Amino acid sequence: MAVISMFYGIIISLYFFDNRRHHLPHIHVRYQEFESVFSISDGTMIDGNIPPNKARLVQAWIEIHKDELIADWQLASSGAEIFKIKPLR
Prior knowledge:
This protein is of the alpha+beta class.
């Protein structure tokens, strides 16, 4: 697992070689005791639970950084080094 961004107490991660369980590009999100998985392509929550206001922040961040996220997903899926992505400010 590699942390690619952090903002407002939200931690965004990608797992290396993580293309089997969800079968689509996605990110893992942690906020306090909550964990969830979001689709990169459309920002929908595909697994887990996170407070709605934090989910909206994650979805906005995904929309802003979609191209970077897709590039990082492709790298992580093949086990290559990934890049940090700017947080929301």
